[in-house]
Amino acid sequence: MAKKTTDWLDLIPQAARDFLDGRKVDEVECIISDMPGIARGKAMPAAKFAASQSIFLPDSIFYQTITGGWADFGGEERYTDPDMVLTPDFDTAIAAPWTVDPTIQIIHNIDDQDGNPVPFAPRNVLKRVVELFNDRGWQPVVAPEMEFYLIAPNTDPSQPIEPPIGRSGRRVAASQGYSMSAVDEYGPIIDDIYDFAEATGFGIDTIIHEGGAGQIEINLPHGDPVRLADKVFYFKRLIREAALRHNCYATFMAKPMQDQPGSAMHIHHSVVDLESGQNIFTDDRGQESGAFRHFVAGLQNHLPAAIAMIAPYVNSYRRYVPDHSAPINLEWGRDNRTTGLRVPVASAESRRIENRLAGMDCNPYLGIAASLACGYLGLTEATEPRVEMKGNAYINEEDIPLSMRDALLQFEESEKLAEVLGPEFCKVYAALKWSEQDEFLQIISPWEREHLLTNV
To answer: Across all residues in the chain, what is the average pLDDT?
Structure first.
């Protein structure tokens, strides 16, 4: 790690310096994303951060399940829990505007003690996929959409989730898609999200009310996949903090309420030629190119094996329900929201493909990496997609795994996906998810107690 100096503040983005406005930094949060996408790391006084030569964290961070358990790697395999070396990526430094004292967050790069990127760190997995595109002379571009629910505080897991009370004193009803009145119900929370985003220097494209009761969608401008994943990673924390200021929760759970739509992280994809700067999805005549078709085919052919990464929990599969604004297939269509792969209305220069299958509960680094990996395989294989779906795709049979178990089996069987994502990552990820699957099977649900206890 290169020695930091007391001038490290000169290396951070202007938005972070503007936030400080001459104030002294009190604390620096040195953070990374774990496998679920939770911020892990160390907080330290700014003076201590400036003087530190190295920051260490154990690699077991990546073996921990969402419940706090540990992945089972089998009988003889052992891990000695070695330290990883963290170095600050100063370009990611942003304010933590909800803190009392001036605080800066910085995402860190993660290497082993020999200086090699840790292969199962989610941010490194995405970097690996982007580098594969770059090696071919391409630069992938993404634009994520973030859907989430504002909900009333829920401290008893046995109780159902409810929307919070709005400004009118009532709970917002469902089926209020694009309603400005529904957005206004939670105006103070939205205002704080805007204020926090401005303090961090993040641009917001749009904010709308989605179809669920208290469901909000935030769209981000397109850009570099790693930087966009950084923003989604940061935004999840930012939105939660804004909600807590108003005595409610923000949840990114894929399906928090029954009979309500799930929350997705739709990912818009395009690919730019590094030499010419042109979108390779458009040919010289302004029409859809071969690369466009190959990318669609790659998503169709390889997403079944990648579903375990974009639908990473047992709850994720409750979102894949027909007629609930979520896809159940890998059909593609122009301006067709019933398909899993939608081609939005756009100019030839902005032609893109929207993957509508990813859930908002996925780790943004891994969700984007998985989707790009499938598109990359399509580009390199030069395969053709199925015929465009021009009608209601919900009437077709499902062609994606609809349970965590089935998704993991397909994930483990895909050698091609492992080559792109990295075999070390795939091994750790599968072990982690099988452990979570086993943990879930030990839980007896209220449905089982209600319908089976005295009836079978």
So the answer is: 92
